[in-house]
Design goal:
Blueprint lengths: L17 E13 L5 H4 L3 E12 L15 H12 L7 H13 L4 E10 L9 E8 L2
Antiparallel strand pairs: 1-2, 2-3, 3-4
Helix pairs in contact: 2-3
Length: about 130
Amino acid sequence: MKASNLTPLKFADASRSVRHVFIRDLVLDSYIGVYDHEKNSTQKIRVNVDLSVIENMKNLDDNINNVVCYEKIAQAIDTIVKSGHFHLVETLAENIAAMNLQDARISRVRVREEKLEAIKNTTSVGIEIERYRK
């Protein structure tokens, strides 16, 4: 049965040997936005990432090289954010998703990105995308 594109699939699923790796509330300074006042100073953003990772069915041997390392993912996100100015939060989220899908063990990624200072009287504004390996 084909999955609906309206219903998010689970990120962890024992029946498919999939584990859920995630990063919560990574706050970074970013050059982001289309308006002139956004181009000359940084804004705080919050990034959340959910990854569906195909489990390694061999023994993990308690070795970090046998898993998807969330520290490396967080560092890669930081590198992307620091790579330059992004006009759209959508562009940054797509770049983060694409970076994660380069790892063949990652079958699905959800990126939630929030600008924390963009709109007065709000906690945050932003987007969430989900991408998967076809």
